[in-house]
Structures are given as structure tokens and as C-alpha cells.
Amino acid sequence: MQGQGQGQGGSKTSVLNCIDLSTPDLHQSVSLLKQACLDSGFFYVVNHGISQEFMDEVFAQSKRMFQQPLSEKMKLLRNEKHRGYTPILDELLDPENQLKGDYKEGYYIGVEVAEGDPEAEKPFYGPNVWPEPELLPGWRETMENYHREALEVARAVARIIALALDLKVDFFDQPEMLGEPIAILRLLRYEGGISDPSKGIFGAGAHSDYGLITLLATDGIPGLQICKDRDAKPQIWEDVPPLKGAFIVNLGDMLERWSNCVFKSTLHRVLVNGQERYSMAYFVEPSHDCLVECLPTCKSENNPPKFQPILCQTYLSQRYNDTHTDRSVYKKPQT
Q1: In this structure, what CATH number is given to the domain that contains residue 40?
Q2: How far apart are CA 179 and CA 163, in angstroms?
Q3: Is residue 6 part of a domain?
Q4: 78 close to 184: Cβ distance less than 8 angstroms
Q5: Which residue in 77, 96, 168, 182 has a CA-CA distance of 20 to 30 Å to 132?
Q6: Buried b vs exposed e over 197-221: b needs ≥16 C-beta within 10 Å?
Q7: pLDDT of residue 9
Q8: How much is the pTM?
Q9: Per the UniProt record, which residue ranges are transmembrane (predicted)?
Q10: How buried is residue 168: exposed, middle or buried, by Cβ count under 10 Å (0-12/13-18/19+)?
């Protein structure tokens, strides 16, 4: 069901469509997803096959990581492949409106590619940065299992998206797309401060995601907001309430390019209200060498392609470099 209710402090609450991955009624799933992609680019996914018990374990392991002393976490600092720990204020998503960076810390985990493998030479591929097993026993195994399971959910969602775009159901399963994807899990912890947009203070600044789709799991603490019309003056922000056991799924800029702006990559942000907040974002992109160009079903003589074709690796590298602190900053002597 789609609609709007009343949120906290008088703000609107966005009631998103809910896609049940276990239903045999594929036609209904395609219809609901298509409506959501045309309207807001956000929807819930339920009955996705990952048990609540396992989700709780992944969140518990995430908390164990972020509860480590900063000195330990800095030993696992994000590398040039965007793997590892990102400190508070490392990411600046909305430089026009943010006073400083995001008041969150994170941890990137990608597809594991061994050192020495030729594939590891590509951007975003390579070995992950893992904590010592003695420090966090079982942590790596939990995260690797979650990474694998979340990718299967993403592939299932992508098949419905393909049908909604009048493509073959397995369009995104091709090797150059989600057959060999750049799939990045990012664990997130938001500080227990209070966001104040009027002062440029945000848990996460306003942005749209870079890639194909994002699967977001939260700990139940609210904070996510979306803006359906980024050009509106003033912008209208709507709360997206957490839904127990569900992923919040949103479309990325790459899918908006692919669909020639038929489907929306929607602006979103996080405001924190004094409570510590944990979430897990799973970013799904095609392979490095995938050429992102207008889909055949999304262009016509009256609606020509709006974007030039671009390689996935080129596009992602540009976007990450634009929003993250240069790593050389962390190598300077502390005074």
C-alpha cells in the first residue's frame, strides 16, 4: 500500500510498497515494485530468506566491532580498495549543506579476492581487511555468510526489476552484471548525538546511492528520511519507518542512468535523535567492465538516451573519491 501518514514532530511518514519474495504471484510483485520505482525508488522486501535469528547475530557482531577502542579500529582503516574501517566524519555526502562530515562510523566488506589474483588489480576488488580472529572470534565468518546471503536477495530483487523494465527476467544475472558483481557490505554506527539540519549537522548528509540497488537493514531505531523531489523549494522530507524483518531497498544512480530516468534514484539522509543507531547497507553494483548505457526498453525516438555510456568502475571510482576523505590525511602525524 502506498500513502503518507503523520511522522514525528509533524513530518510526513512515507508508507512504502512491500514486496514479498515468497509469493507465487509474480505479477503482483512486479506491479508493486514498478509503482514504487516510479514513485519514490524505495520499497520494503519481506520473506527474503534470511532468518531473523541470523540478522540479530550479524547486528551483534557489528556492535562488537564498533565497541572496540578507536586505536584498534584505526589499525583496520579503509584502504585504497575501500575495504575496512571509516571513522566518524570520514564521509561528506552533502558538502553544500553539511558543516562537517557524517556523524557515523562504518566498515566496508567486499567480495573477497585473494592477493595475487589478477582480478585483485581492479578497483573495488581485492582482499578484505579483517580484524584478528583473537580480537573478534567468528566475526569474519559471520560477515562472509551474510554477504553471500544478501547477494542472493539482491539477485532476486533484480529479477523483478528486470521484469518491471520489460526485460528478460535474467537480464541482470549476466556475468558482466550481477554474475560477478561489485557487492559491498557496509556496517554503520551512528553516534548518539542530535542532528540539526539548520546547523548542517547530520547522521548522514543528503545523497543518492551510486550503484544498482541497496539493501538496508536497521536495528529498529528511526532516522532515515527521503525526499521525492530534490528540486522542490523547500525540499519535503518524509520519514521511512523501520519494518521488523524487512530490508528497505532503494535504487541507485546507476539504475536511473540505465533506465533513462524512468526509475528514480531518490535523495535520502539520516537524522539521529540522541539514540545510538546501527544499520547495515548492502550496495550492489555490476562488474567493473559493465558498460552502463540506456536500456533498449527505456529509449525511443521521442525519448533519446539522457546519459553517455560509462564503465561501472569509472563511475564508482569518481563517486567514492568525491565523498570520502583522502586517505593521506590519516597518515599525517597526530598533534
Answers
A1: 2.60.120.330
A2: 18
A3: no
A4: no
A5: 182
A6: beeebbbbbbbbbbbbbbbbbbbeb
A7: 40
A8: 0.91
A9: none
A10: exposed
Contacts of 233 (CB under 8 A, 6+ apart): none
Domain membership of residue 89 (yes or no) is: yes
- 3-state secondary structure string across the chain: CCEEEECHHHCEEEECCEEECCCCCHHHHHHHHHHHHHHCCEEEEECCCCCHHHHHHHHHHHHHHHCCCHHHHHCCECCCCCCEEECCCCECCCCCCCCCCCCEEEEEECCECCCCCHHHHCCCCECCCCCCCCCCCCHHHHHHHHHHHHHHHHHHHHHHHHHHCCCCCCHHHCHHHHHCCEEEEEEEEECCCECEHHHCECCEEEECCCCCEEEEEECCCCCEEEECCCCCCCCCCEECCCCCCCEEEEECHHHHHHCCCCCCCCEEEECCECCCEEEEEEEEECCCCCEECCCHHHCCCCCCCCCCCEEHHHHHHHHHHHHECCHHHHHCCCC
- The pLDDT value given to residue 6: 40
CA distances (Å), origin 166, targets 30, 159, 254, 265, 284: 10, 11, 18, 19, 21
Cell of 89: 566524519
- Split into its structural domains, the chain has a count of 1
- Residue 1 in any domain: the answer is no
Pairing of strands 204-207, 84-86: unpaired
Class of residue 87 by CB neighbours under 10 A (exposed 0-12, middle 13-18, buried 19+): middle
**What does the mean pLDDT of the chain come to?**
90
Q: Which three cell numbers stand for residue 10?
A: 509533524
Contact 189, 105 (CB under 8 A): yes
83: Cα within 13 Å, side-chain hemisphere: 18
* pLDDT of 11: 59
Residue range of the domain that includes 305: 11-330
Q: What's the grid cell of residue 238?
A: 518524509
Domain-located, residue 205: yes
Phi-psi region of 216 (alpha: psi -120 to 50; beta: other; left: phi over 0): beta
CA distances from 281 to 182, 209, 278, 290 (A): 14, 10, 10, 22
